[in-house]
Amino acid sequence: MNKNYIAGEWLDGVSINRNINPSNLDDVVGEYARADTSQAELAVDAAFDAQPGWACLSAERRGDALDRIGSEILARKEELGFLLSREEGKTLAEGIGEVTRAGRVFKFFAGEALRLSGERLANIRPGVEAEVRREPEGVVGIITPWNFPIAIPAWKIAPALAYGNSVVFKPADLVPGSAWALAEIIVRAGQLPAGVFNLVMGPGSQVGNVLAKNPKVKALTFTGSTQTGRSVGMECMSRGAKVQLEMGGKNPLIILNDADLDLAVEVAVQGAFYSTGQRCTASSRFIVESAIHDRFVQAVIERLSGMTVDDAVKAGTDIGPVVSASQLDQDCDYIDIAKREGGKLAFGGDRVERATRGYYLTPALIVDTENHMRINREEVFGPVASVVRARDYEDALRLANDTEFGLSSGICTTSLKYASDFKARSTAGMVMVNVPTAGVDYNAPFGGRKASSYGAREQGPFAREFYTAIKTTYTQA
Q1: Percent of the chain beyond pLDDT 90?
Q2: Would the pLDDT of 374 be above 90?
Q3: Reduced to 3 states, what is the DSSP secondary structure of residue 427?
Q4: Does 316 lie in the same domain as 206?
Q5: Is the pTM of this model over 0.90?
Q6: Are residues 98 and 227 both part of a single domain?
């Protein structure tokens, strides 16, 4: 059994979590310890005690540790990518790509550890010098989702450690394998002092609750559902802890009449259906201008009809299984709701069988929808996309912005005028022109607006805003 890592030791949990392969329900990926409230408290105490010593180490020492971690991740990308795809269900190419990104994130923040700087301000009072410093927050709680089981932990853990914080990491119960493998690399390759990094696998109702409520946790970063995120945020804010929330999305992709049709179809399919559509940045609403609408829909159907849904690690698979039985039920329920409300299922949406028992669903395209329908208001989080017809650009922009969410948005057009206008007027935190809504870079800020995100941005140099505290000092010369 794979154990939790608390206060420098690998410890048994209070129960065992059997990790099942969604491509093959007869395949047990592994057994992983589950912690309870008392073990989560122990981890927080260890992190609290260890953090001051870690922060006092030189930035070079911290950077070197992160660089070693990144190097091992990259050296083992095929092995770790296979594990990731086996437990989460994204294709092997996507799994290896995600692991590669995780390794590069650690190497990026190895450099950022050395680039952290402050400011010296111009004198206002004669003889008094003012300086602005950045210091670590202290203990950082990290709660991550199941859909990117190594990349999201990497882009939270790496900056936390780079800037001198200690970490208590709670991964999603559904995907403990990738989290445990990452933790083992961090512990060994980073050679961190005991207590600086802690892995506490277990249910959110216990482990997550401790991270949200314990006063020793000075900052908490969470990625997951909107409902849970809001609850976590309220707990943290009630005690004055810093909080960062990445939650849901209902991301629009506008297709204008002047778009390159082949490019638009590829952008739409990549953004909506790859990674089985299980991305908060997925294009779940295609908003299509009238003159190109029918041609676009037919071209997407033709593209989807040539895609293979099968075992995630099997050669030739384009779309792997849905991650779990409950997620599969949710996807199918939303397809049924869309049909009852007047939408037409133009392609897919079928549960299918393969050589191994798994949670297989053909990608679903729903047409004749209106923006007020639930399929266009609520996040499905699966290989399901809807099409809304727009009269013109202004109508398309209105529809795109008509959502409580604001994570990512996109437009396909050959018009510089419309591209520039959309970048200015879209109410999303990330705006894409002729590229999929789901593609982001690790050296650029990640995050949304409205109900999608709360707090400072993730990734890139902007990560320092969450993981560091600003201190202003005055000195009489």
Answers
A1: 99
A2: yes
A3: coil
A4: no
A5: yes
A6: yes
> What are the pLDDT digits (tens) for 241-291?
999 999 999 999 999 999 999 999 999 999 999 999 999 999 999 999 999
| Residue 440, domain member (yes or no) | no
Residue 446 domain-assigned? no
- Is 302 an annotated catalytic residue? no
**137 and 227 belong to one structural domain:** yes
Judgement on whether residues 70 and 211 belong to the same structural domain of the protein: yes
Q: Which two tokens stand for residue 251?
A: 């991301």
- Check whether residue 230 and residue 258 sit in a common domain: no
Is residue 443 one of the residues assigned to a domain? no
Please indicate, yes or no, whether residues 179 and 280 belong to a single structural domain of this protein. Answer: no
In the annotation, is 236 catalytic?
no
What range does the domain containing 293 cover? 251-433
Q: What is the mean pLDDT of residues 113-133?
A: 94
Overall number of domains in the chain: 2
Residue 151 forms part of a structural domain: yes
Burial (CB < 10 A; 0-12, 13-18, 19+), residue 71, is middle
Name every residue whose Cβ is closer than 8 Å to that of residue 79 and which is 6 or more positions away in sequence: none
Who contacts 11 (Cβ-Cβ below 8 Å, separation ≥6)?
Answer: 3, 4, 5, 33, 39
- Residue 1, pLDDT > 90, answer no
343 vs 88, 115, 166, 351, 386, CA distance in Å?
30, 52, 50, 19, 9
Catalytic residue among 280, 379, 412, 458: 280
- Provide the pLDDT for residue 147: 98
Q: Which of 137, 246, 266, 458 is catalytic?
A: 246
Q: What is the Cα–Cα distance from 316 to 309, expressed in whole angstroms?
A: 9
Neighbours of 42 (CB within 10 A): 19
- The CA dihedral of 329, 344, 292, 385, to the nearest 10 degrees, is -10
Report pLDDT digits (tens) over 388-440. Answer: 999 999 999 999 999 999 999 999 999 999 999 999 999 999 999 999 999 89
Strand partners, 128: 476
* CATH at residue 398: 3.40.309.10
We report the CATH number of the domain holding residue 116 as 3.40.605.10
User: Phi and psi (nearest 5°) for 422?
Assistant: -65, -40
176-214 pLDDT tens trace: 999 999 999 999 999 999 999 999 999 999 999 999 999
Question: Are residues 77 and 206 located together in one domain of the fold?
Answer: yes
